[in-house]
Please model this.
Amino acid sequence: MQIDWADPRVIAGAAAVVVMLVLAIVLAMRWKIQRTARLRQRFGPEYDHAVLTHGSAVKAEAKLEDREARVEKFRLRDLSVGQRERFVASWAQVQSHFVDHPRAAVTEADELVGLLMLERGYPDGAFDQRAADISVNHPRLVQSFRTAHEIEARVGKDDASTEDLRVAMVQYRTVFDELVEAPPPTGIKAVA
Model:
């Protein structure tokens, strides 16, 4: 069967197909723009870090959405008043060790932040996974967490200056302060 391109019905049908294709492309582009805007707003500087790490916005956005899906499954919980008080007292003790034993204090701070994350409902795991997990609800903290951890990793190699150790403590304190006070994010069910 041969198509008669001069037939008005064929022209109207072809035009309708073209309009639907253009509409589909516009809707797909709009969805992509909204997705990018949502992820940029949610993750802030972590969005740019993910793009650099994964080599493209498409890959980074897929990874960030994977993080969101993973963290949604966690049973994040707020700390009780007693838990909060114990963690704050533990931090004060860690911080007091810094003057005489800065290297040990940084290691203790790393361990205390890890315990705090566990208590809040984040699973234990390799550092990169823990950083990815925390980035979902605390995207502005994750760089502080990475910086402190990178310095703490150098402690064992005796490759961290006193100033580096001070920076690590300040960064761990930033992470600690938010995690010890922060209630679970909106939309995530808290568990008592």
User: Anything to note?
Assistant: The helical segments are 8-43, 45-54, 57-72, 81-97, 102-120, 127-137, 142-155, 162-181. The radius of gyration is 25 Å. Residues 93 and 105 are 9 Å apart (CA to CA).
